[in-house]
Amino acid sequence: MKLWPRRPEPAPTRPRANPTRIAVLEHDLLGIKPEPGTAAALAIGLRRLGTCFEHQPVETTTLGDPQPTGLCTRCGAAMLLDEHGHWRVAEA
Ligand SMILES: [Zn+2]
Q: How many angstroms does the Cα of residue 80 sit away from the middle of ligand 1?
């Protein structure tokens, strides 16, 4: 049995973070736009198109908002409540 030199043990493999998920979170939390043509750009673009069959808005209105605002709990799209009481996707 050879005691020296000892071989360094291989580093434990850690689960890798999903780069697309990171890019989407950077967009949502920090406002960083993903590079065009990437999966993250596609995911955010599809979100804006409305990938929901039917949006499920929750109201997120704060005192400073001029009109009631909300977020879709399914796709995360920003939504506005119009004067007729219908939610629509807010344009960026
Ligand atoms: Zn939605």
A: 12
For residue 81, list its beta bridge partners: 87
CA 64 to centroid of ligand 1, rounded, Å: 24
Read off the pTM: 0.42
Q: What H or E segment, with its residue span, contains residue 40?
A: helix 39-49
Is the same domain home to 59 and 38? no
pLDDT digits (tens, 9 = 90+) for 18-36: 888 899 889 889 999 989 9
Domains: count for the chain: 2
Give distance in angstroms: CA of 75 to centre of ligand 1: 4
82: containing domain: 52-92
Alpha-carbon distance 71 to 59, whole Å? 7
**Ligand 1 midpoint to CA 58 (Å):** 10
pLDDT digits (tens, 9 = 90+) for 41-78: 888 887 766 567 788 889 888 888 888 899 888 788 88
